Amino acid sequence: QVNILVPPSTLHHATLFYGTTLSLTSRPVPSLQAGTLAWFDISSSGQQLHVAIGRPDVDFTPEARQAKRHPCFRGENAEKLRELQERIWEHYKRGGEGAPMQCDEPGSVESGAQGVEYPTRFFARDFAGNRLEFSL
Known about the structure:
By secondary structure, the protein is an alpha/beta fold. The chain is built from three helices and eight strands. The protein has helices at residues 11-21, 56-59, 78-94, and strands at 2-6, 25-27, 37-41, 48-53, 72-74, 102-103, 121-125, 131-135. Strand 3 and strand 4 form a beta hairpin.
C-alpha cells in the first residue's frame, strides 16, 4: 500500500482528484475510520492508495510541499499514460476543488531528473502538494 497525507477536511478533494481525475476505484474504509481515510485501488494488482489526514503544522509547511519524495504509479502503456497526463493537466488548468497544485504540461520536458535511463514519465503535485510520478 502507498500512504499519502492530506490536510484536515480535504478527503472530498482526494475523491475528486484520485477517484475522478486519476480514475482510481474508491474502496470502503473500516467503519471506525470513516471520515478520516480514503482508500483507492491502484490497479487490479491489489495495490492500494491510502489517503490519511496529516498535521498542518508539520506535513504541509512550505518546505514539506516542495519535498522530492514521491510514489510512482506505473502506466499500462504510452497512450494511457499520455491520456492520464492530459486529464491531470486539464484539471490543473481548470482549477477548482481537488485540482492539482502542479503538473508537467503535456508535450514539455518533464520536471524530474533527466537521463537516458529514465522511462517515459511525468510529475504532478496533488491538491495537498504531494509529489506524484507517473511512468511506464
